[in-house]
Amino acid sequence: MRARLLRLADVTPAEWVRWQALSDRAAEANLAFDPRFLSHDQGGDGEDEYLFVVAEEDDRWFGVLRVFAMEALPSLGVPTYGTWDPPLFGASHPLLDRSRAADALEAIARAARRELRSGFIPLRGYPASGPLADALQTVRRRRTMDAVVVASHAAAWVDVTADASLPPGEPREFPADLDPVYRSTNTRRMLRRHARRLAETAHGPLVLRDASDDLAAIDRFVQMQASGWKGDSEQGGTAVALDARGERVFREKIEAFRASGDLIVLELWAATTCVYSTVVLVVGNVAMPFLDAYQHEFRDFSAGTLGRTAVNAHLRRLQRLVAVNPGIYDYYDEAAKTYPDRREFVDVVLGVGVVPSRAVRLLPRADTSPRMRGLLRGLARGDRLGMRALGAARRRLGQDR
């Protein structure tokens, strides 16, 4: 198995088909790398910022990882390529074929070293458990490979406990569950108070509606998102309605997931008024909230918190799901509290090559030891020079043939 670099702008229609097949076989779902989500960004202003390492064999893809120029560690100052934190660009862990996850990860790592001239590859937001973690442990034991964990994060998560009372497709309207047992007593009291005041103001009960098949639901969402500060660019608003191309791409992504039956749109209604809406995309059997919005005039009732609470209660009872991944680390403390469970993700640095595989375990000491930082910088510099010399020698041999 070999791997190569690929930019978003250069992905061909045939490659999108291979990519989608890989996403369908992936050991762990990743919305950020799903072609139904990603392909619509092709041709945009920022497409040159998308750089991927693709592992393949014959005409079949086995792994994809998006990489960015960065430093191996903030304190070290060694330039390299790796992945950013999940909250910045969506989930960052690679797509790996479940049947050959370790082989694909190894091929990606070795190609990153060969093509990007770095033996230290940071992988931020990497699952600490499950098939990807197993693949990493296997790769660590292979020749001239090792890895070290440099940080750990508890990420918001929802473990789904399927309830037979919620069969797929029926019904489409539910009483809003706004009293979750996993929240504190004070929070539950606050939620009940806000729900009561909102129902009194609207002159009707709060209900959650599944609007996945309602074509007008996306229009309502776009209008609702623009109703508050998100619709004001001077306040840093990011509503999709602020940019014509951005709204078009958003709608294209939604329709791609609707076409495959993997779109969930849930709305919180107070009597005859829609006060909250969320767009959830399903990859494999994991739901990944994409965007949500609340009607701005109901902000004093914590409409956003009420909506997310009702949505979580609903999603964790859907038979088609095994989990909900909101992509929120616990340093977004208040947002993370809305979700009942946690999953551990780690920041890991892969050492690839003779020198980096031996030096990578020294990285945690670089934060506190100037002497160790100097040693590691020297080793990294020497390793890059060695790779350049080796590349030049191979090019000369190729010209001589």
Automatic annotation (TrEMBL):
UniProt-recorded Gene Ontology molecular function terms: transferase activity
Keywords: Transferase
InterPro entries noted in UniProt: BioF2-like_GNAT_dom (IPR038740)
Keyword Transferase appears in the UniProt entry: yes
Highest taxon listed in the record's lineage: Bacteria
Pfam families attached to this UniProt entry: Acetyltransf_6
Domain BioF2-like acetyltransferase: 186-314
Protein name as it appears in the record: Acetyltransferase (GNAT) family protein
Organism: Microbacterium kyungheense
